DNA sequence: GTTAATATTGCAAAGGTTTGCAAGAAATAA
DNA sequence: TTATTTCTTGCAAACCTTTGCAATATTAAC
């Protein structure tokens, strides 16, 4: 049905090996003949059979972009940004296969299927998958968190970022600060926890004086958690949220109670989703550029696949983005 | 390197054809032997070489999920929902390759590479891609809009949906309604335009009395457009937006100007993103369930690929979701 | 026990490509 | 002209499966 190099060879009156060499410039082919073959291939609408190439070279042109899950518990923003970042680097050299690790059937991973994997892991349940990939020798890069000692990673300074934003709140005079953390078992949560706690203890805050609620990093959970905090502690002047989505929820919970942001309650986030900077309530947050992280990971993977040398971890700073959801306590009386 | 059926055959003392038959239950194999072969395969960690299977069967296990673009102009919400919908149906039977049609290199499409395509087209620039796929005989389903007479589609009642929400505004007594449309060249925009216009003329509204601004379906454009509308027409009581994202922007633009939603200005959306129902400002909108659309499309594609019969178009209703961003004009004086 | 029918198995080809090897052609050197 | 080197080219094997066909083993029927 489809045009093969044999068809081209027959038409051009050469052997198919010559066609193959002409097509991908591997061996030497007489210039004129090469031109002619390329022209014929084009006019016949030849498309290389990827399956055959993969079989022969035992190399695929697929890159797996692996998320812990595709369900509602992954943030649409992050997913989108990661795709943008990866695409920007990979272009059309490879196909990008979006995989949900929680749906993986153990034992079905194959080197001939994936030239490399980009792992966007959120949970330790992904370990089995990662282990399988490692056993099969598939090049892997972890983006967003370290997952395994042998897997190069792009990591951002979660701890330092959170420290910066907590410091900022404290510098602005806030002392009664509520915290909305994310899923406690995630590494990102633990690092961010360490970060805010480090700042807090440096400023001499007492653990008991910091009320903490837990969300799941999604909008609605932030709204509920903020509600609980505000209802239980009417002396709070600020709420530090472990990500932007929950911070958005917290803003709503605050205004729902007739309180103003930032006049009555200051709120901070983490991620700097683009939507966080749009509204009139422009979130003070920590920039964690998912596009950049993903792009960096893709670059590393490409290098890894092509040169074979294990890339070194990449460490990205997180920048504090000061906007208008944090008030200065020195300049006003307590509520 | 990797384990092949020959290795299994050698170990089990049978021919590799027998192993093949045992493995995928095609021919008859003595029960005891079959068990043994499966056991050996498992213990040796056998993974079928997809490339070889694809080559032999000239059938791939990849489904292309094709967006017009992956850049910032695709909505993260929709992208996410579509992925969820497709995954729910496809599971792990196929790999899902996310493709950006604007990055496609013409002539590189191949039946052996894609078992089928799900087309989420937003612009006519995708036509070249679709035409190539059609010429190559790759099964395709269009989701979200009709793209080609020969391509079965899952379409929702854009026009009817917009008619419903415009009707609702008019029933509530609004007569000075501003409109924020999306990119004028998109089919969805035209259909939605027809819908609101049909309702408007049925109620005897004059074209000149309806100010229209154009956004690009993203948040920020809605904010800007609403700003223009409000600044230029201080008698507006409602703004009808062509999607939820722009409606969110419009809400912000409204509150930025010290106006309240819905007391001063009513606002409606289209899409019913899950985030639209979370805040205290819960958007009145039209439900357009992307998860459902994508799932339906995936089901059709599967049927198409397996049975070969061209599926019929699927038509989904769009439901008006009344929430709290529309006020009743009869109950209050004009602003 | 013989024949016929059926169940099980192996052989070999095929699918489209790449590539080592050897042969042939052309160019250079003597 | 002949010997040597360098380009070009074709042959054939290999990558791993699936599957039609023929061969063999097993069972059933008489």
TrEMBL record, chains A, B:
PROSITE patterns: HTH_LACI_1 (PS00356), HTH_LACI_2 (PS50932). Keywords: DNA-binding, Repressor, Transcription, Transcription regulation. CDD domains: HTH_LacI, PBP1_LacI_sugar_binding-like. Signal peptide: none annotated. GO terms for molecular function: DNA-binding transcription factor activity; transcription cis-regulatory region binding. SUPFAM superfamilies: lambda repressor-like DNA-binding domains, Periplasmic binding protein-like I. Gene3D superfamilies: 3.40.50.2300, lambda repressor-like DNA-binding domains (1.10.260.40). Residues 3-57 form the HTH lacI-type domain. Pfam families: LacI (PF00356), Peripla_BP_3 (PF13377). The keyword Ribosomal protein does not apply. This is Transcriptional regulator. It comes from Lacrimispora algidixylanolytica. The lineage of its organism: Bacteria, Bacillati, Bacillota, Clostridia, Lachnospirales.
């Amino acid at each position: 049905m489809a045009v093969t190099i044999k068809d081209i060879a027959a038409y051009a009156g050469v052997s198919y090996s010559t066609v193959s060499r002409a097509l991908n410039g591997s061996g030497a082919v007489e210039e004129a003949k090469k031109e002619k073959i390329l022209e014929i291939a084009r006019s016949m609408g030849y498309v290389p059979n990827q399956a055959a190439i993969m079989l022969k070279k035992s190399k695929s042109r697929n890159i797996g972009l692996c998320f812990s899950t595709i369900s509602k518990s992954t943030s649409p923003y992050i997913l989108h940004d990661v795709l943008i970042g990866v695409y920007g680097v990979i272009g059309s050299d490879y196909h990008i296969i979006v995989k949900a690790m929680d749906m993986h059937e153990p034992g079905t991973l194959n080197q001939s299927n994936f030239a490399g994997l980009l792992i966007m892991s959120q949970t330790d349940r992904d370990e089995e998958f990662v282990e399988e990939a490692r056993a099969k020798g598939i090049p892997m890069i972890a983006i967003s968190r370290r997952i395994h000692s042998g897997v190069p990673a792009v990591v951002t300074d979660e701890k330092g970022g959170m420290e910066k934003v907590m410091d900022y709140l404290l510098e602005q005079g806030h002392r009664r600060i509520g915290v909305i953390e994310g899923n406690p078992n995630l590494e990102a949560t633990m690092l961010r926890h360490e970060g805010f706690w480090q700042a807090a203890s440096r400023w001499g805050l007492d653990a008991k004086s910091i009320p903490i609620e837990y969300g799941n990093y999604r909008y609605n959970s932030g709204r509920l958690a903020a509600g609980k905090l505000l209802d239980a502690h009417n002396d709070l002047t600020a709420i530090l949220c472990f990500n932007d989505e929950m911070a958005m929820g917290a803003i709503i919970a605050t205004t729902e109670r007739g309180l103003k942001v930032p006049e009555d309650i200051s709120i901070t986030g983490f991620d700097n989703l683009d939507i966080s900077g749009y509204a009139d309530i422009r979130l003070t947050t920590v920039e964690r550029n998912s596009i950049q992280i993903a792009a960096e990971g893709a670059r590393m993977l490409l290098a890894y696949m092509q040169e074979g040398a294990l890339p070194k971890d990449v460490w990205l700073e997180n920048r504090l983005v000061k906007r208008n959801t944090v008030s200065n306590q020195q300049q006003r009386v307590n509520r």
